[in-house]
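Why does this matter for the project? Reviewers at the last site visit asked to see concrete outputs rather than summary tables. In response, this paragraph embeds two records directly. Each consists of the residue sequence and, immediately after it, the corresponding structure tokens. Nothing has been edited or filtered.
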Amino acid sequence: MRERARRLLGERLDVETAVVLAPLILRVGRRDRGAVGLELLDGVLRRAPRERLLPLHTHTDRTVRRFALRLALEEGILSPGELARRAAWDDDAVVQGLCADAALATLTDGGDWDEVLEPLLGARNARARSAGVTALRRAGRPERAVGFLIDRSAVVRACARYVVRQHGTDPLPWYRKRCADPADPAVPPGAVIGLAECGERADAELLWPLLTHPAPAVRARAVAGLRILDVTDVARLLPLLDDPAPGVVRETTTVLLSFAGTLPDGLLMTRLGAERSRSVRVAAFRLLDARGGLIGLRAAVALLNDPDDKLRTWAGQSVQRWHPGADTPHGNPEVGELLDRARHLFSDYVLARHGWRGQQAQ
């Protein structure tokens, strides 16, 4: 039966059916004895006219796109410019990397660099942009890398710093100059985080004033930069938990998680109220949940009726995995009261198994 199926596939598989059946053949090819189908598909597509393969290069299945790309690379049917444009628009990181590397590998000193560099440098994905920025050194255009020192991607910023350093320029003074005036509304967020990535702890003095910058992205990068520099002042960061920008609140929470056990629980509990923004409630709960014990249980139970589905579910899961800490001696009446409010989350067996049923009775 298997041999007959192989024979029929070999007889019926032409270019048109190969393009249509490629997703199925590639999926079956992962199984035992699926190699025959892959070999037939490969043979048919290698003989196909280039224009007939275009649907495979834009297929929604990334496995199909990868297969078609590797075939095209082996056959050499895509120009450097086409490869660069493919690296720029495809959303698959594997395809991005293969195309960018192949496009740059084909170029020589006398090649058309613009045809390759412009699509890569203008790509939305960081993989292609970083490849383009790194290639600026080889192309003899390192000065263009300066503009990418403030890129939104950490990888691209790192590549840009490498290129400008190789050109004899230290990026640190460049970053410091752009972060020197906290009143400047045009401070680039990428310069703020870039300063932290290659700066010293003393550079935190340039970041602290940026916590009140009017641009949310600048404030968020300033908080992230302080974390990178390992400079933390809890008292100065706590007010940012009420920042109107969710990104700032998230960054602040990430920094404060290491200090969750020392934060004032009353201040955080008041921020669980439904009148607060979702970002503030999430931040407060993350910090209280990280603290654990009785305080963590209080916070979780307080959110069991929260209007936000995800936060309510998260709180319920926190209650279900809760265990007493050093601050919750056996028989604590508050624990029994809190668990009673969350009783719908447990079976009688679980309550009895953990000894919580007795606490409720007390």
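We now turn to the second protein, recorded in exactly the same manner.
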Amino acid sequence: MTQNPHAPTEPHVSDFNVPVVAEFRANGGRVGGMFEGGDLLLLTTVGARSGAEHTTPLGFVRVEGRLLVVGSAGGSDRHPDWYRNILAHPMVTVELGTETFGAVAVPTEGADRDRLFDEIVRRVPGYGDYQKGTDRILPVVALEQRYEEAAGAATNFAEKLVEIHAWLRGQLEHVRSEAEAYLADRAERSDGTPPAPGLSLQLRQHCLAFCESLHFHHDSEELMFPRLEEGDPELARTLDRLREEHRTVDRLRGELEALIADLPTADPERFRAEVDRMSAELIAHLDYEEAELFPTLSAIPFPPVAHQRSDER
């Protein structure tokens, strides 16, 4: 229920990066050669056009508790492919040492980006040299670890469902609070100047992350529903209602994406009313699903236990 929804194939790794990725995974994140001694992670993104996964080794810096990567592309005048991918699909997978976790990739902007980049250059001067070689502003991207992945304590599917729902609720609240900040900043700019840099892109990324995760979560659940119904036929009516609610929620998800896209010109009161309505329906759905499925799902171990063959017992 937590894998990337846009990953029909195994992650693609460019020929140049193949040995680096292999060495990283074989040695718990340690590599030699030109990367020896550096702080390195693997970032797996989803292709903006292909929908296939791509894995890229990247240097990282931690600043103010934030995990940051820079779209330097060696000082090229063109953004790296992984950066264009995260603008289309913010949900990424990060491998850091021996740890693997899901994250939301959020580019920083404005004064926040400049402050962070100055600190990154102070620690790793090479990034400053890359910036001097191009008129392109090198993106600084924060990799925000997903809440339910950080918890990691689920022992059955009911607990995993609650973890995922907690992240979805948190991400929805994140979208609401950032939208409110955007509208408040817009209201203060009576001269028509755009809201402060950083608000619009962060809001967009969090909204896309919430919408993509919600859609994939429901697709994954519906793959599991037939098995639940087979094990407990009395769940049939509940599962039919959940399927119908999924259709409604998917429509609301599309409406939320459209609202966020129109935020620069949206009427604030209408926007708030629509977001409140959609949020109430989404939360009600999550509450109902937990209440009805928790008893059944609590009996199913997580991660799933593979059945042994009779000749292996």
